[in-house]
Design brief:
The complex is a heterodimer of chains A (154) and B (505).
Chain A: H1 3-6, H2 9-28, H3 33-66, H4 76-112, H5 117-138, H6 147-153
Helix pairs in contact in A: 2-3, 4-5, 4-6
Chain B: H1 3-14, H2 17-35, H3 40-52, H4 57-69, H5 71-82, H6 91-102, H7 106-141, H8 144-161, H9 166-180, E1 183-184, E2 191-192, H10 206-224, H11 241-253, H12 255-270, H13 275-290, H14 303-325, H15 332-343, H16 350-355, H17 357-381, H18 393-412, H19 416-433, H20 439-462, H21 470-492, H22 498-501
Antiparallel strand pairs in B: 1-2
Helix pairs in contact in B: 1-17, 2-3, 2-4, 2-5, 2-17, 3-4, 3-10, 3-15, 3-18, 4-15, 4-17, 5-6, 5-7, 6-7, 6-14, 7-11, 7-12, 7-14, 7-17, 8-9, 8-20, 8-21, 9-20, 10-18, 10-19, 10-20, 12-13, 12-14, 13-14, 14-17, 15-20, 18-19
Classes of the chains: A mainly alpha (154), B mainly alpha (505).
Chain lengths: 154, 505
C-alpha cells in the first residue's frame, strides 16, 4: 500500500494537528521555566493524543482502502469555495473593504453562482452601502484601505 | 438581593430609546438567523460582531444577548412549516409541529411555539435571577486551584459531549488552550509563539479565532453544497392569526407543563456542554411521559411543541450562569457570546460577582424583554413566514464573507488578522469536514488565560499540593468520572443519543 493511498484528508488533518502540537511543544522547550510550564502541560498530552489519533485514522483508512470503499477527497465545489475565500482574502488585503468588498460580492454572484446581473448589482451596492455608508460614514469607523491602496497613496 | 441594582438595570433599558432601538433590531435579526436552516445563532453572533464594535459594553451586550436569546424562537418556524430544524435544538419541535401543519394547524403550532418560547425565555431569566443570590457566595469560595481544574473539567466535558471521539474533542480543546498561550508570557514577559509579530504580543484575539473556526468553514460548506439552506418540503401552510392566537392560548392552558419544562430547560442549560439539544429532547420526553394521552404524541399534540420550545429558550438563562461567573460557556453559542463579551470589555469570571453585577442584571432583563418582544413581532409577521423557504444561500455567502473579514480586522484593527482568519478558516473547514468537534476550541481558547493564571497562583500559594484541596479533589473526581463515563459507553458500544451528536448550539 502506497503512502498516497493512506494520506487522505482524514489522515492529513490528524497529521497537521499532530504537527501543530509537536512543533509548539518543541518550541516551548526553548522558553524559560515558568513560561514553558503550561504549554508543556498541554502540549505533551496533546502530542500523545495526536499520535494515537493519527494511528486511528491510518488504520481506518487502510481498512477503507482494503475494502475498496471510496476515500474522502475534496470535491470540485469545495476547491472552488476555497478559491473564492482566497480571492476575498487577497482582494481585501490589497484593496481594502470599501473598494474590494462590493466588487468581490459582484464577482462571486456573477462568476461563482451565475446569478442575474440585477441581483449581483443590488448585492454589490448593498455591500457598499453597509461598508461605506454604515461603517465609514454613520459610525465613523475608518476601514482598512488595503496594502496596495496604502502604498499607492503613500 | 440588590433590588435597587436590579430595577436600575431595567430602567437602563426601558428608559433609553437607544437601548430600546437596539432591542428592536436585535430581535428580528436573531429570529432571522434562527429561522434560516444552516445559518443558526452562532453565525448570527459572529456576523454582528463588527456592528457592535465601538458600542459601549451595556449596549453591545444587550444587543448580543437579545439576538442570541431569540434564535430558537425563529428556529421553530422551519421546523413546523417545512420539517427542517432551523437550529439543532429545534429538531424536537418537528415531531409534533410538522404533523400539526399537515393536519391544517400550522398557525396553532406556530402560536404555541412562539408563546412557549417567550414564556420559556422569561422563566429562564427569572431562574437566573433567583439563583444569583445563592450562586454568588459559591463563586467567591472558589480558589485558583478550583478554577484551574474547572477549566480542565469544562474542556473535558465539552470535548466528550460535542463529538463522537473524546480524543478528537480533547485535542481540539487543547489546541484552543495552546493558541491562548500565543502572547507575551504574563509571568516573565518573554515572547511565546509570537514569531516576532507585534500584533501577537497581546495574544490572538478571540474574534478572528472564532470567526476562522466557525464562520469561514460554514460558508465554504454552504457554497460547496450549492447554496441551498435545506431540502425543505413545501407544504400547504395557509393559516390565519386566529390559529396563532389559539396556539399562544394553548401555552397557558397547559401552564403546569410550560412552567415545568421551562425550569427543566433552565436547569439543563446550567450544565456546561449539555446545551439545547438535551434540554428540548428531555422536555419532549417529559411531556409525553406525563401526558394522560401519550398516544397523541408524534401525531400533532400541541404539548409536543410547547415542551421543547419552552426548554430551548429557558436554557439560555441557565447557561448564562456558568458562562458569566465561571467563564465556562454553557454551550458553543455561549462560547462565542463569551468571546464577544470579552471584546466589549466584559470580563467573565468570579470578578463579575464582585464588581460587574450591573451588567449581569442588564443581561437578564435583556434576555427576558427580547423574548417578550419576539412573541409580539412574530404574531405581527406570522402570515408571511412561509416566504422564508425562498431565502437562498448564494445571496448570503459573499456578504457573510466580507463581514467575517471585517469582524476579524476590526477586532484589533490589524490587517494581519486577515491572514490569521484565512489560516484558521482553512483548519476549521477540515475539522468540520472530518468530524473534529469545534466548540472545544473556543472553550479552550477562552479558558486558556484563566487556566494559566489560576495554575500559577495555585502553585505559588500551595505548590503541587493544591491538587489535594477538597474543592480540587471534587473537580478531579468530576474529570475522572467524565472520562470514565466515555470509556464505559465506548466499551458497551452504546449508540449516543441524538441530542449529544449535534454541535449546532
Amino acid at each position: 500500500m502506497t503512502i498516497n493511498a493512506i494520506l487522505n484528508g482524514r489522515v492529513a488533518t490528524a497529521l497537521v494537528m499532530l504537527l501543530i502540537f509537536l512543533s509548539m511543544t518543541v518550541m516551548a522547550l526553548g522558553f524559560t521555566e515558568k513560561a514553558r510550564l503550561m504549554p508543556l502541560l498541554v502540549g505533551v498530552p496533546g502530542t500523545i493524543l495526536g499520535v494515537i489519533e493519527l494511528i486511528n485514522e491510518m488504520r481506518a483508512t487502510i481498512r477503507q482502502v482494503e475494502a475498496g470503499d471510496p476515500v474522502d477527497a475534496l470535491t470540485r465545489a469545495e476547491r472552488a469555495m476555497f478559491g473564492w475565500v482566497f480571492v476575498f482574502f487577497l482582494g481585501i488585503l490589497c484593496f481594502g473593504f470599501t473598494y474590494a468588498g462590493p466588487l468581490l460580492v459582484f464577482a462571486f454572484m456573477i462568476a461563482g453562482k451565475k446569478e442575474s446581473l440585477t441581483v449581483a448589482l443590488i448585492s454589490a451596492v448593498g455591500t457598499w452601502a453597509v461598508l461605506f455608508g454604515f461603517f465609514e460614514q454613520m459610525m465613523a469607523i475608518p476601514l482598512f484601505t488595503g496594502l496596495v491602496v496604502e502604498w499607492l497613496l503613500g | 438581593m440588590d433590588l435597587t441594582g436590579i430595577f436600575d438595570a431595567l430602567l437602563t433599558i426601558v428608559g433609553s430609546p437607544y437601548h430600546l432601538f437596539l432591542l428592536a433590531i436585535a430581535v428580528p435579526i436573531g429570529m432571522f438567523f434562527g429561522a434560516i436552516p444552516g445559518l443558526g445563532g452562532k453565525l448570527g453572533i459572529v456576523l454582528v460582531i463588527p456592528f457592535v464594535f465601538g458600542m459601549d459594553a451595556t449596549a453591545g451586550a444587550l444587543f448580543l444577548i437579545a439576538m442570541h436569546s431569540v434564535v430558537h424562537t425563529g428556529g421553530s418556524v422551519p421546523s413546523i412549516l417545512f420539517g427542517v430544524p432551523g437550529t439543532g435544538p429545534d429538531a424536537a419541535t418537528i415531531v409534533d409541529g410538522l404533523p400539526m401543519t399537515k393536519n391544517g394547524e400550522a398557525g396553532r403550532a406556530l402560536g404555541a411555539a412562539f408563546g412557549a418560547s417567550g414564556l420559556g425565555g422569561v422563566i429562564g431569566g427569572l431562574f437566573l435571577l433567583a439563583l444569583l443570590p445563592l450562586l454568588r457566595p459559591i463563586v467567591l469560595t472558589f480558589s485558583p486551584a478550583e478554577f484551574f481544574l474547572l477549566a480542565l473539567f469544562g474542556i473535558t466535558l465539552i470535548a466528550m459531549l460535542s463529538g463522537d471521539s473524546l480524543i478528537k474533542g480533547l485535542m481540539v480543546g487543547f489546541l484552543g488552550l495552546m493558541f491562548a498561550f500565543v502572547k507575551l508570557d504574563p509571568q516573565t514577559g518573554i515572547e511565546r509563539y509570537t514569531f516576532g509579530q507585534l500584533f501577537l504580543w497581546d495574544g490572538i484575539n478571540v474574534i478572528p479565532a472564532v470567526l476562522g473556526i466557525f464562520a469561514i468553514p460554514e460558508m465554504i460548506a454552504l457554497g460547496a453544497a450549492g447554496g441551498s439552506m435545506a431540502k425543505a418540503e413545501k407544504l400547504e401552510t395557509s393559516y390565519g392569526i386566529a390559529g396563532v392566537l389559539r396556539g399562544i392560548g394553548d401555552v397557558f392552558r397547559h401552564w403546569a407543563l410550560s412552567i415545568r419544562t421551562s425550569i427543566i430547560g433552565a436547569f439543563i442549560g446550567m450544565i456546561p456542554g449539555l446545551g439545547g439539544d438535551a434540554a428540548s429532547w428531555i422536555c419532549y420526553g417529559h411531556a409525553a411521559q406525563s401526558s394522560k394521552t401519550p398516544e397523541r404524541f408524534g401525531k400533532g399534540a400541541v404539548e409536543g411543541v410547547i415542551a421543547p420550545e419552552t426548554a430551548n429558550n429557558s436554557k439560555e438563562g441557565g447557561s448564562l450562569l456558568p458562562t458569566l461567573f465561571f467563564a465556562v460557556p454553557g454551550s458553543s453559542g455561549m462560547a462565542i457570546l463569551l468571546g464577544a463579551f470579552i471584546m466589549l470589555g466584559i470580563q467573565p469570571g468570579p470578578g463579575l460577582a464582585l464588581t460587574g453585577m450591573e451588567i449581569v442584571w442588564v443581561l437578564i432583563w435583556g434576555l427576558m424583554l427580547a423574548n417578550i418582544l419576539a412573541v409580539i413581532m412574530f404574531i405581527i409577521v406570522a402570515p408571511g413566514l412561509g416566504y422564508l423557504s425562498y431565502v437562498r444561500g448564494n445571496l448570503l455567502i459573499p456578504f457573510v464573507l466580507v463581514l467575517t473579514f471585517l469582524g476579524a480586522f476590526l477586532a484589533v484593527r490589524a490587517w494581519e488578522n486577515l491572514v490569521l482568519l484565512s489560516l484558521l478558516g482553512t483548519l476549521g473547514y477540515f475539522l468540520k469536514k472530518y468530524e473534529w468537534p469545534r466548540p472545544p476550541f473556543v472553550i479552550g481558547f477562552i479558558l486558556g488565560p484563566i487556566a494559566e493564571d489560576s495554575f500559577h497562583k495555585a502553585m505559588s500559594l500551595w505548590g503541587p499540593a493544591f491538587l489535594l484541596r477538597p474543592g480540587a479533589l471534587v473537580m478531579i473526581a468530576l474529570i475522572v468520572l467524565t472520562i470514565g463515563f466515555y470509556v464505559f459507553r465506548l466499551v458497551k458500544h452504546k449508540p449516543k443519543p441524538e441530542w449529544l451528536r449535534d454541535d449546532d448550539d
